[in-house]
What we know:
By secondary structure, the chain is α+β, with helices and mostly antiparallel strands. It is built from 3 helices and 4 strands, in the order E-H-E-E-H-H-E.
Amino acid sequence: MAYLQITLKIAASKRAAAAGVYRQYKTPFLETIAGAKSKELLVREADVQVLHGFDSVEHAQAYLESALFTTDVVGALGPLLDDVPEVRVYEAV
Length: 93
């Protein structure tokens, strides 16, 4: 199992819109991205995180280059961001 964690700095006033982007692309992510296992939205006072589960690190990294991510998700979230997202890939052992 591998995890892709994307931490987003989004103002509280824009978080509902960000949650809408999450909901819009969750099903396409799970149905079309190779190795996709799960996708969760984690909301904290300081930021918002999207935690993606994959069957391998390779599939997690490939998602970052997919059109769904680079065009659709990034395009929709871009105007909502207050800073550059922090992206990390973890391997569960």
